[in-house]
Amino acid sequence: MDDAAERARAYLAGHRVMTLATSGPEGVWAAAVFYVNDGWQLYFLSAGHTRHARNMAASPRVAATIQEDYADWVEIKGIQLEGTVRLLEGGARAFAIVHYAQKFPFVRRPEATIETALARVNWYCLTPDKLYLVDNSRGFGQRDEIDLAK
Question: What are the residue boundaries of the Pyridoxamine 5'-phosphate oxidase N-terminal domain, all occurrences included (predicted)?
Fold first, then answer.
């Protein structure tokens, strides 16, 4: 039996970069960020002075995509989602950092520049309320809406 939710979870776990679309006082913006997921929750970091961080502070509703750079339409697979971002503090921030470091070991390097940078950045959690799995290998334009309650 085919389970689109399981395929979507596997896709999230197997990829590293999402393109985050935000909107705020300066208009719409898109930025690529590394993420780690815990279930459907997507954790990422960003410096507070960036345009997308300023936009998220003004309006926490965002959209995002996760995909590879395919050469043929029939190969296209990916995730499209929309949801709400929240700034993390305390235990939630610590949780995100631990999980992020498991996926991206380079953040544990003993270089002062990385440690200093990680101490200054904001950590965020994107909670999707709509998520779609696109898979053109199953038919052109194939898109499954995922029930996030599962």
Answer: 6-103
Within 10 angstroms of residue 47's Cβ, the number of other Cβ atoms is: 11
Q: What is the pLDDT of residues 57-113, one digit of tens each?
A: 999 999 999 998 888 887 889 999 999 999 999 999 999 988 998 998 887 776 656
Rounded distance between C-alpha atoms, residue 93 and residue 97, angstroms = 6
Is 149 a member of any domain? no
With respect to residue 33, please indicate whether it lies within any of the assigned structural domains: yes
User: How many domains in the chain?
Assistant: 1
pLDDT for res 70:
84
Is 119 a member of any domain?
A: yes
Report the predicted TM-score, pTM, of the whole model to 2 decimal places.
0.91
Of 127, 132, 128, nearest to 96 (Cα)?
127
Of the candidates 72, 13, 71, the residue with the CA atom closest to the CA atom of residue 39: 13
Tokens of 46: 């960003």
Distance (Å, whole) CA 61 – CA 59: 6
The pLDDT-based confidence of 130 (bands split at 50, 70, 90) is: very high
Look at residue 18 and tell me if it is in a domain. Answer: yes
Instruction: Please check the confidence at residue 34 and state whether its pLDDT lies above 50.
Output: yes
